[in-house]
Structures
1.
Amino acid sequence: MIIIGVDFHPEFQQIAWVDTDTGELQEKRLAHRQEAENFYRALAGKKVRWEWKPVDMHAGLNAC
């Protein structure tokens, strides 16, 4: 299974993922729409679990 964490920002998406079968861990910054579309299309047919938080929540937590 691939577990993906996504941090959404207005200008980009910061993505980190781990493949639980291989232990491979990667991180990527997607700054362009086409780059993001290609990344998500490559996941088609794979077992994926998503974790995400909107940028508003992130900013609110930092203010506490």
2.
Amino acid sequence: MAETKKQPEIEVKSIQKQDGGFGDPAAPQPGGMMEMASTRAAQEVQAAMVVAKRFPRDEATAYQKIMRACQRPSLATQAVYTYPRGNQTVTGPSIRMAEEIARSWGNIDFGIIELEQRTGESDVMAYAWDLETNTRQTKIFTVKHVRHTRSGSYDLTDPRDIYEMTANQGARRMRACILGVIPGDIQEAAIAACEKTLSQGSKEPLVDRIKKMVVAFEPFGVSKDMIEKRLGHVITTTSEAEVVQLQKIFLTLRDNMAAVTDYFPSDTAAPDTNGKKEKFGFGKDKKAGKEKDKDEPVADEEKADDKSAKKNEKLFEK
């Protein structure tokens, strides 16, 4: 009986000695939590590679999935970007197109990771990993918390602005990583299929599509006069091929792949004297009786508001 009574007392004393008044000794320490997270991530990658080897992709089926996806007008209108570089025009799959190809191709892990955030900048990693062939593309870069606009540059302090800036810059690198692990002939076939979908026309009258196109360009500070200056004729005579080309320009501006002035030079935006000054950001000071320059309305060069971006994308859907 004496031994059974002493045993609980010994256990209580030993626990109190281990605790020492500094908390639960069994609680995980910060270093241990990081090690556990690293181990768990490694196990997840290993499991994904095992599953990819066990269930390899059927390339013929994957190719058919990509071709079917390219027949959707909603994807075809967002599939290709284009921007001028010197005397040439560069085109390629957009971010949405790259994501759709990766999803249909299968067994690909891709994403964006913010490695570290410091005052004024963030270190970010974009990657794409073909788990079946063990081919990996990784890009590590630094994103400055600064937004550059036509009216100047300013620092970002709002966490949401910083996040969206980082996500915008990371998405472009992620696209490059995805395209680095996808066969080139698959990309070319997808682009050709999307262009074929666009060339087949739409049930919506061309006149209505032209009007929606003009409205879609307004958030970027592009007016109807600027579009007509680029086309070389009035907007009402725009052809189907020109609408497709303007759609590509819209996607390029939306994804911040080029500046507005790359397609619509600033001299085309010069206001005339027929009441268009207010439209281009010039007002009249009634008190002084003189015209004064106001800040020209500048579309957000790095991101659009979530609601307005979705609205503009729908304008090109068939």
